[in-house]
Write a structure and sequence with these properties.
The protein is an all-alpha fold. It has two domains: 7-101, RNA polymerase sigma factor, region 2, helix turn helix motif (Rna Polymerase Sigma Factor, Chain: A), CATH 1.10.1740; 103-188, Orthogonal Bundle (Arc Repressor Mutant, subunit A), CATH 1.10.10.10. 72% of the residues lie in helices and 0% in strands. Helix 6 crosses helix 8.
């Protein structure tokens, strides 16, 4: 039986090699996480150009700080934390962010055109509703509900308590639900 290609030993080896200056190993780590970083940044920033810039900054910070990542289990959490922080920096520099997130490149090809139009409308409404949220509410909601991370990990990434994360998500969901109801009521 063949050994798995992406086991923990392989990731540990890649991380160790990248720490010792192996650029090919770092590139493999980067490729493994680039989609996650770009999708998260796009959801937080709303513009593909900003998300791409933020992604580059995330991986630059990762490269500069490889020694601070304790191990492969901590790597995704560390990358999420850096992504959120980089996106916060971008938002502070550009406070008037216009959300126009196009998540279509993350959708499987060959989707029914009617379904694609419905999905695009939902995505547009989601993007607009994300604008209503505070920076902290948006980060908590994106990481927990859209990225699917457990509350404990979101709290660790955001440097806050689980109770605070649950509260932020609760408030964000109420705001978004109200917006979505008004948005789709007007569209009918």
């Amino acid at each position: 039986m063949a050994a798995p290609i992406e086991g923990p030993e392989v990731l540990t080896g890649l991380l160790d090699a990248a720490r010792s200056g192996d650029l090919a190993a770092f590139e493999l780590l980067m490729r493994r996480h680039e989609r996650m970083v770009l999708a998260t940044a796009l959801r937080l920033l709303g513009r593909i150009e900003d998300a791409q810039d933020a992604s580059q900054e995330v991986f630059l910070r990762l490269y500069r700080n490889l020694s601070k990542v304790a191990g492969t289990q901590n790597l995704p959490g560390w990358i999420y934390r850096v992504t959120v922080n980089v996106c916060r920096d971008f938002q502070r520099r550009r406070p008037e962010v216009v959300f126009a997130a196009d998540l279509s490149e993350f959708v499987s090809p060959g989707v029914d055109p009617q379904q694609a139009a419905t999905d695009a409308e939902r995505s547009r409404a989601l993007d607009m509703s994300l604008r209503l949220l505070s920076e902290k509410e948006r980060a908590a909601l994106v990481l927990r509900d859209l990225e699917g991370l457990p509350t404990e990990q979101v709290a660790a990434i955001l440097g806050t308590s689980q109770a605070t994360v649950r509260s932020q998500i609760f408030k964000a969901r109420i705001k978004m639900r109200g917006f979505m109801e008004r948005y789709f009521r007007r569209r009918v």
